[in-house]
Amino acid sequence: MSSPIVDIHTHIYPPSYLSLLRARTTVPYLLDLPAPAAPRLIILPSDDNGALPPSSRGRPIGPEYSSIDQKLSFMSAHNIDVSVISLANPWLDFLTPREALSAARDINDELEAICKESEGKLYAFATLPVSAPSDEVVAEIERLQQLSHIRGIILGTSGLGSGLDDVTLEPIWAMLEKSQLLLFLHPHYGLPAEVFGPRAQDYGHVLPLSLGFPMETTIAFVRMWLSGVFDRYQRLRVLVAHAGGTVPFLAGRVESCVEHERHFRDENGQQQERRGIWDVLKHNVWLDAVTYSELGVRAAVEAVGTERVLFGTDHPFFPPLDEGAREWVSVEANVNAIKKALGGNHNAMRTVLGRNSIELLRLMISD
User: Fold this and answer.
1) pTM over 0.85
2) Which of 153, 333, 340, 343 has minimal CB crowding within 10 Å?
3) Is 5 helix (H, G, I), strand (E, B) or coil?
4) What distance in Å separates the CA atoms of residue 40 and residue 34, rounded to the nearest whole number?
5) How confident is the model over 14-60, as pLDDT tens digits?
6) From residue 166, how far is each of 169, 223, 251, 284 by CA, in Å?
7) Who contacts 72 (Cβ-Cβ below 8 Å, separation ≥6)?
8) Is the peptide bond before 90 cis (omega within 30 degrees of 0)?
C-alpha cells in the first residue's frame, strides 16, 4: 500500500512538562533514580506505593517519551508518514489555575514549534488549562486557532474537575463547536482502586489499563450524551480513544436503559426528546483503532462506519520489552487487527490507515 499512513493517537512529554513533574513530590511526579536506571513516571495513585522499591514504582520513562528524534525514528520504522502528537496524561489537571494557564500556553506553543520544524511530518492536539476559569479556557481555544499545526485538543474525562456533564463546560463546548477543533477524549483516572481487589499490585498495570481506562472512557462519553451535550452542540466533533472504550458494545444497552427509565419521562409519561446514541455515534464521533483485536476494530466500524475509524499507535506506551527490538508488537497487532477486520479490502484499509485522518484534520499531505 502506497497511500499515506497517519498516526492519530501518539503522545509526548515535552522537556518542559517533565520539568514540571520533576519539581513535584506527590502524584503525578517523576522519580529520578541513580544512573544508569531510567526515571520512574508516577502518574497513578497505585504507582505511589511506598512498600515497593523505587525501581518498581510506576513505569520507566526513557528518551522515547520526550525525544522528537525518537518519535520520527519510530515513525520511519513503521512506515508512518504523519503523526498527530498530543501531551500524554495527566496533562495539566494537577496545576493551580494560574500555573495551568501559563503551562498550557507554553506547552501548546512548544508543540506548534516542534511541528513547524518537522517538515510536514507532525501536527498536534493542544492541551487545555482545565483548572482555570472556563472563560480563560475558552480564550486559549480561541488562541489555538492561530497556531497552524494545531488540529484539536486533548481532554481527560474529568473535564474541568466534575466530569463531562458539568454545566460549566457549556462555553467550552460552544467554542469547540464554533472553531470545529476536534475534541480528543482520553482516559487517565480509571476506576476506583478497590474495584481491582487486594491483589491488584500482583498484576502490574494490566487491570487499570486494560479494563479501567476503557470503562472510564465509556462512562465519560455516556454522561456527555445523557446530559444533552450533543443535542445542544450538534456540530461538536469528538474522537474517542481506544476504539471508544466499550461504547460500541454497550450503546444498545445504554439506550434501552434510557427507554425504560422513568426519570426520563415527563409528567404526562412522554419520553424526553433527545438524539439517539447511535445517531450521535454516526454523526459526531470518530474512534481510533487502538484496540489490538479484529473484533474490537469490527465493533468500531459497526458503530461509526469505516470512514470514522482512524489508525493510532499509542506510542510511546506499550513498548517492546525485548531489548534491541525495533518493531513494536503493539503496532503490528493494531495493523493486523485492521487488516483482518476489513477483510483485506485494500481501499478500506487505506481509508482507516490514513485517508480518514487527512480529511478530518485537513492535513497537508499528498495521497
Assistant:
1) yes
2) 343
3) coil
4) 11
5) 999 999 999 999 999 999 999 899 999 999 888 898 888 999 999 99
6) 6, 9, 21, 19
7) 118, 121
8) yes
